[in-house]
Amino acid sequence: MAAIVPFIDPGRSRAKIKPFKAWRHMQQLLADKEDTQQVFEIIEALNGDSLRRDFRKFIARPDGLSLLQKRLYLPDILDDHDMLMSFPENSVAHAYVKFMRREKLSAAGLVAESEIQRQNAHKFDDDLTWFANRGRDTHDLMHVLTGYGRDGLGEAALLAYTYKQHGGFGINFISMIAHRQIKRVAPGNINIGEVFTEARAHGKAARRVIDQDILSLLQEPLTQARQRLDIKKPLAYRRALKLLDAINFTAAATAA
Hints:
Elements: H1 19-31, H2 37-46, H3 50-59, H4 64-70, H5 74-78, H6 81-84, H7 92-103, H8 107-118, H9 127-137, H10 139-146, H11 152-166, H12 169-185, H13 192-205, H14 214-219, H15 222-228, H16 235-246, H17 250-255
């Protein structure tokens, strides 16, 4: 059998960091936290060559090339809720479907948002694009596995977690700015810094979701999957969120 050779289109130029573009989009994101399009723009502007480095790490794993060869298109799997609910009770799949229905989300919706950002860029149908899409498509699955919610604090903490697993200054930048904004408006008795310190530590210690056979992962019991991947409970985040909820401060926290 011929060896699998990852293909990166030779027409790709090395990504450059664009700080002024990132800052412009950050201002728009701070003005409207629901404008997730700005997140994609900031990451693209600041991540530089981190995607290639992350891809090399992925294919260096024992099963990396095997997963690449399958080239599964995850949105079709993740949006097939009937199939996912046929998996065992208490599985990752069941938790994922409940999360997506509660939040009124779809994997296809996230694809559509990312395509807006890419519409004026040259599109490459290569393995690096497939890998980038894999990271995008597992974002909501990361919410389910890690326990970080979609509130402002949870999203920012998940980015800190993700940064420690994948690198990319764009991801880290958004997380740091959100940390500063939330800390500025949160009551002083709530240790926001502890939430981000914990998220980074947990992200560094855990195995990466992007490296997993996602279809097999979805069929695992949620508790077992978390143990296997060394995903620890986000206790500092839960404490902070409980205190924020107790004083009806969630709206202010998410507005950051």
